[in-house]
Write a structure and sequence with these properties.
Structural class: mainly beta
CATH superfamily: Cupredoxins -  blue copper proteins
Radius of gyration: 20 Å
Strand order of the largest sheet: 13-21-20-15-18
Oligomer: single chain
Number of helices: 2
Helix content: under 10%
Distance between the termini: 15 Å
Largest sheet: 5 strands, mixed
Shape: globular
Strand content: 25-35%
Order of helices and strands: HEEEEEEEEEHEEEEEEEEEEEE
CATH architecture: Sandwich
CATH topology: Immunoglobulin-like
Length: about 350
């Protein structure tokens, strides 16, 4: 098996990385923007403005639509339905939702839309809170980018009025982030707003868990590449997290692990590729994305029949640290119907199919 994976996220996306998102309505690009220096000694490069319109909104989620665990061929007790939250990308001024595309992904749940940039670009996100179910404030907090404190999106009791940290229901806020040379890679963005109790709509519940917005689905990926680097033939984005009924009203199935909001084989995402294609997996570890008040353990990600280079050696599985993104890549040469999985204490619920033709 060719071992063309890279040992870290920068090597993967520099020289073998991703093209910038062009067209499709998610961005307003074209004219070069002013030079955008990094704030940590990175080289100064010219860039463009990448403009997105995102909305936080409720949606009807179902973790196990088949009602079964396809790996053990058994029925799942209880219901996997609950009211989740999602980030959704829109056309300018939130005029209409964007359709699914290779650029932004499914735009339908977990993960939220993919945000893309090249080194030197400024990412401008116009955010609107449309959470008319839980009626709670929400925000956007980005990893891996440069920004001023006013665009951090993190709420705390010490600074409750920080700009963009608790955007109220029907409120709007614009975040501005810069992609520095050291930003090359794949990073998460997520809600980091005021804690609340989902079983008490409208109640601030300041003693509740700080990650509840992420738990309900407000999380996505940011991809930063060097300019003019090629996109892989296949990109797979996977969020490893947990499901827990005590903080997801309506969910009555036993707590378990999940992948992109789905649990158990036959429900989790199925990914496909063809022999000869370059494939890239971007897998987000589970810190804070899952059952609140439960310690998030590292997960070991594995794809049957495949291996890649990671930190200087060949591996058939990679440990994903909490809240980190593992970027794995290879050139496909092994046809078949393979299991991918995330090994943890809740192992069997996090299996999926990877089909190579």
């Amino acid at each position: 098996m060719p071992q063309s994976g890279r040992p870290d996220r920068r090597m993967v996306l520099a020289g073998a990385g991703l093209t910038a998102l062009a067209g499709g309505g998610a961005l307003a690009s074209g004219d070069p923007a002013p030079v955008l220096p990094g704030s940590r000694g990175d080289r100064i490069v010219a860039g463009r403005v990448r403009e997105y319109w995102l909305q936080a909104e409720p949606y009807e989620a179902d973790a196990v639509p088949s009602g079964r665990d396809g790996f053990r061929d058994v029925a799942i007790t209880g219901s996997g339905r609950y009211v989740g939250l999602r980030y959704r990308a829109f056309r300018p001024n939130w005029s209409a939702p964007l359709p699914a595309s290779l650029d932004i992904g499914a735009n339908a749940g977990v993960p939220g839309p993919i945000l893309r940039a090249e080194v030197g670009d400024e990412i401008v996100v116009h955010f609107r809170n449309a959470d008319d179910h839980y009626r709670q404030p929400h925000s956007l907090h980005a990893h891996g980018l440069d920004y001023d404190q006013a665009h951090d999106g993190v709420w705390s009791a010490a600074r409750p009025g920080a700009p963009g940290a608790a955007v109220p229901i029907s409120g709007e806020h614009t975040y501005r982030w810069r992609a520095a040379a050291s930003s090359v890679g794949v990073w998460p963005y997520h809600d980091n707003s005021r804690p609340f109790r989902p079983d008490r709509p409208g109640d601030p519940a300041l003693g509740a868990d700080e990650w509840i917005g992420k738990h309900l689905g407000l999380v996505g990926f940011i991809v930063v590449s060097e300019p003019k680097t090629p996109r892989p033939d296949r990109e797979f984005f996977l969020v490893v997290h947990d499901l827990a009924g005590r903080d997801m009203p309506g969910l009555t199935m036993p707590g378990c692990g999940a992948l992109n909001g789905r649990a158990y084989l036959g429900n989790t995402p199925e990914f496909t590729a063809r022999v000869g294609e370059r494939v890239r997996w971007c897998v987000l570890g589970p810190n804070g994305i899952g059952a609140p008040r439960v310690v998030s353990f590292p997960h070991e990600f594995h794809v049957g029949g495949h291996r890649w280079r990671w930190r200087g050696r060949s591996q058939a599985s990679t440990v994903i640290l909490p809240d980190d993104v593992a970027v794995l890549e290879w050139t496909e040469d092994n046809p078949g119907r393979w299991l991918y999985r995330s090994h943890s204490i809740r192992d069997v619920s996090m299996y999926g199919w990877y089909v190579v033709a």
